[in-house]
Write the C-alpha cells for this entry.
Amino acid sequence: MDRELQGTITLPEEGRTLASGEQEFVLDVRTQDMELNMGPQHPATHGVMRILVRTDGELVTGAQPHLGYLHRCAEKIGENVEWLQYLPYTDRYDYLAAMNNNIGYSMAVEAVMGIEIPRRAEMLRVICAELNRIGSHLIAFGTYGLDLGAITPFLYAFREREWMMSLFEKICGARLTYSYIRIGGVFNDAPPGWLGEVSRFCDTFEVKWREYYDLLIENQIFVGRTADVGVIPRDMALDFGLTGPMLRGSGVDFDLRRDMPYSLYEEIHDAGAFKIPVGTGEKGTLGDCWDRVWVRVVEMMESVGIVRWCLENIEPGPVIGDIPKTLRVPAGEAYVGIENPRGELGHYVVSDGDKVATRCRVRGPSFCNLAVVEEILSGTLLGDSVAIIGSTDVVIGETDR
Amino acid sequence: MDFQGITDRLTAVGAPGFLGVDEPRGKDPEVKGDKGRAGDPFVLVDPQSIDRFLVVCRDDPKLRFEILADLTATDPAADDENLWVNYNLLSVSHRHRLAIKGILPKSEPTLPSAVAVYRAAQWHEREAAEMFGVTYRGHPDPRNILLPDDWVGHPLRKDYEFPKEYHGISCE
Amino acid sequence: MVTVSRYFNNVWKSFWTTMVGMRITGRYLLQKPITVQYPDERMPIPNRYRGIHYLEQEKCIDCLACARACPIDCIEMDAVRHGKELEWISFTLDYQKCMFCELCVYPCPKDCIHMGTEYAFVTYDRSEFKHDLLSYKGMSRDAKIRMVDADKKKAEKEAAKAAKPAHEEAAESAPEEGAEDAGAE
Amino acid sequence: MGFLQEKVAELGSGTNLIRELLAGAPRPELVPDWAIPLTAVFIGVGILLAIVSLCAMFGTWLERKVSGHIQCRYGPMRAGWHGWLQPLADGVKLLLKEDLIPLGADRVLFVIAPALVLSSILGAMAVMPLAPDFFFADAPMGVFLILALTSTTTIGVIMAGWASNSKWSLYGAMREAAQVVAYEIPLGVSLLVPLMVAGTFNLSEASAGQAGGFGIFGWYIWPVGFGTEGFSLGNPFMIPALVLVFVAVLAETKRAPFDLPETESELVAGFLTEYSGIRWSFFFMEEYAAMFLYCVVASFFFLGGFNSPLTWVFEDGGLLPNVFLFNVMAFVTIVVKGFLGMFVMMWVRWTLPRLRIDQVMTMGYKYLTPLSLLCVLGAGLWEWGKWMIVG
C-alpha cells in the first residue's frame, strides 16, 4: 500500500454526535456501513414491520421503515360490506384498543346519520373506552419494558390487563375484538354486578400502578436507557402530525377528550375527573422516550379517574337507540376524530344513501406516529433504536390496516 | 373558531384556491324537504393550489392549523369522472378543525404535494398515490407504502379489477 | 465538585432503585401465582362468551337472516321445505373465516342461533373447520309426526270437503258473520 | 511421557485415591504405572462434566421457577414434582433436535466454538475444590487461574459469532469481546481486596482462614469477626468489594442487565442466533456453570467458603469431629452457597431492564474500575494501619 494512504483518514461525516450530545466519534479508520434488516420477524418491531437500518458499528446512520406486511385491505372491505358489518373489521386494525375503534367508527356513522344515543350507552362507552385505554397503555408499558430487557413488568402489566379483558368478556363475550359498541348505542347492558367489579378493578389497579412506577419508570437503568433518547422537539411533533401520548410527550398540551370534547368528556372534565399529563422533560430533554412512556403511565391513572366518575354517575336507562336492522345512512360525509390510546383515530365516512359505504377511511394514529421514526432513528445507537421504536407504541395492524 | 369563522377568515385573507363551502342540511329533523346532504361541513379548494392554501392555513395567526390530521382521496363512484382529495387540518392552539376537499379529474389526477408544508403528508400521500393513482408533484419519496412495489392498479378506485393471481399465487 | 457529587449520586440511585425493584419482585416471589394450570383447572367462562355457535335446530326456519348479517359470509344453510316442515341438509359455519363478532345472533327472528362457551376447536384437517351445526340431518321425529299429522288432517279435510255439499259450507260460515256484526254493534 | 506423568501425578488427590483403590486389586502389578493418573484424569473429567451439566440443569430449573414465581406464574409444572425433571426433558429434546449449520457459515469454527466454550469452563471448574479433602487441582494461584480460564470463553463466543455468518451474531460477538475485556479489570481488581485480607490465592487456604465462630462469624465479610483466634478486626471494604465483584460477575457471565451479547430485543439472540440443538445448549451449560463457579469463588473469599454451621459441627475440634461428614457438609455448604448466589443473580435479572452497550462500557470503565481501585486502596491502607497498630 502506498505510504500516502496509510495513517489517519478522516471521513467527511466526522464528529457525529449522539442524541445526548455528549460523546463525539471521530473516525480515523475507513469503515463500511452495514445494512441490517430489522424485521419483519424481529422481537422489537412489535409485529411485522421491517426497518432497514444502516449501521456503522453500533451507530445507526439511517433507517427506512417498510410497511405493508399486515395490509388487510380494511378500507376496501369497508366499501363492500354493510355499515354494521364493517364494525368487526374496525376491531382489527388497532387490536389493542378495539373498543375505541368501535366508538370511532360508530360515532362517524352516527355523525352522518345525525342521531343521538342514550345517556347510559354513552356512559358504558366511556367506561369501556377508558378501560381499554388502560389495557392498551399496559401493553405499551409492558412491551416497552420488554424492549429494554425488563421482562417482569410485562408480566405484571398482563396480569392487570387479564382482569380488564375478563371484564370485557363478561360484558360482551370477547377478549380482544369486542364489537361491543354498536351504531346507535352499545350492544347490550352491563350484566348485574359488572359495574361493581369495575370499581374493584380500579381500586386494585391504583395499588398496582404504584408498583409499575417504582419497578420500571423510576428505575435508574430505565431512566438511563430512555432519557435524552429519541428526542422529538415540539415543532417536529406538530410537523409530523403526531397525536396522543407522542404529542403530549413532546410538551404539547393537547388531548381531544378535553380540547375537542365528544361523548361525555366535556362533562367529565368539568367535574374535574381527569387531567391531561404533559411531558416536562423531568429526567432529560423534553420529548424524549422517558416523557412519552411517563405520559402513558400517568394517563392510566387519569383513565381510572374517568371510570370512577362514570361509575358514580351512571343511571339506568336504555342502551341502544331505535336503530333498524339494516342501516341506511343518508347521503353525506363526516370526519370524526377521537382520542385513541395512541392518538387521534379519525374515521372519514362517505355515504351515498346506500346500504354500503362509499368510502371508509381510517386515519390510524400509529401510521402517523411511525413516520417520525425515520427521522429520529439516525444518529442513535442500535440499542436506542429499539427504545425509540418501542416508545412510539405502534400497532402494526393499524399502520398497515 | 367554528366553521363559519374559519371560512370567513379564509375569505378575508384571500386564501389561494379557496372555492367555497359545502354545508350539510340543518340538523333539525322537523324541517322537512331539506334535500341537502348529511354530515359535516367542508371547504372546497382548487387542488392545483392546495399547497399554497395549506401554507395560509398553517401560518395565519387566526387559523394556525399546526397538524395535518388526515390526507386521503376518495373515489365517489365508478362513473364519476372526478376524484376527491381530502385534507383534514387540526389546530392545537385554537382547537378547531377544518375539512378540505378538492375535486380532481380522473383523467389527469395530478396535484402539488403538501410535504413541503406538513411532513405528515409524506406517508399519507404515498398511500393515496398507490391506492387511487393520484400523482403528487414534488413528493420526495414516491414509492408504494402499503402495497408491493410491483402492484398493478389502484385498489381503492371503484373501477379496480381484482387480480386473478399474484406472482403465481391464486387470489381466487 | 458537582461532577463528583453527580457521580456518586448516580451510583447511589442505581443501587437504591435496584433495591426498590428487587423488593417488589421479591414480594411477588413469595406470593401464590395467579395463573391456573390450564387443562386441569379452567377459568370460569361468562354467560355472554362468544365461542363456537350452537343452533336450536327445531326453532330455525331457514330464513337466512344470520347468513345475510355475517360480514364474511361464512354461514351457509340448505334445507328443503315440506309444507311448514324443513328437511335439513346442512347448516355450516366456516370457522376458518368466522371472527366471532356475534352479528349473526341478533337478527335471528326465532332466536335460535347462539354463541356457546366452547372455544377449543382443533382439527387435523382444514376442511373440518367447516363445521356443521346440525344435530340431525333430514327431518326431526317431531317434524315427521307433525307432517304426517298435517298430511292426515289435510287428507281428512279434503275428504270432508269432497263429501260436504257446497251450501253446507256457506251455512257454516254464516254464524261467524253474525257474531262479527254483533261485536260491531 | 515421563514429563506428562509427572504433571498428571501432581494434578490432585484423585491419583492417590485411585492408587489406594488399586492397591487392593488382586494383581496390582499388572496395572501399568502411567494408567493410574490417566484413569484419575478421566474419572475427574467425568465428574467435572457431571457437575457442569448438573449445574446447568438445576440452574435452568431454578431460573424458570424463580422467574415464574416472580412473575406470578408457576413455571414448569408438568415433568415431575413442580417440573424438576423439565431440564432432563429439555436435554432430550435438544439432543434430538435437528442440528443446523447455516449455509455460508464457517463450518469448522462453527462446530469448534461450543466445544471451546465448554472446555474452558471445565478447566476452570477443575480448580474449584469440592471439599477440603477432595479436589482436582489445588492450584496455588487458584483465583487467577479461574479468571484466566473463564475469560477464554470469550474466544469461543467470538468464534461462534463470526462463524455463524449472521449480522446479529457478529454484533453479539463484538459486544461480548468489548464487555468481557471491560469487566475483567474491575473483577480482578476488586478480588484483590479479599486476597489482601486472606493473604493467599488458593481457595482452600482462604476457606481455612475463615474457620471458627460457629461457622459464620469467621467470614471475611464481617467488619468485626469472631474466628478461631477470638475477636478480630475485619476489613470494612469487603462489603463494597463484594458488591463490585457481584456486578462484575453479572457482566462476565453475560447475565441481565448485562446480557448485551444476547439481547433478544435488539440482536434477535446475539451470537446464539444461528445455533440450535445440543450445540446451543453447550453455551447455556457454560453460562450456568460459570455463574455457579463465580458464586462459589466469591463465597470462598467473602462468605466463608466451606465454613457454615453444618461444617462447624463436624470440623476438627468441633462438637462431633468426623472427617467424612465434615467433607460432605463442606460440599453441601459450597453447593448451597453457589446456588444462593445464583438465585440472587436471577432475582436481579428478573427485576432490571438491560443497559445499553455504551452504558455497559461506561459502567465498566468509569464506575466499576475506579470504585474497585478505591476499594483496593482503602483496604490496603486499612490492612497496613492494622499491621502498624496491632502488629
Notes: The longest strand of chain B covers residues 82-90. Chain B has one domain: 3-27+37-170. The domain at 3-27+37-170 of chain B is CATH 3.30.460.80 (Beta Polymerase; domain 2).
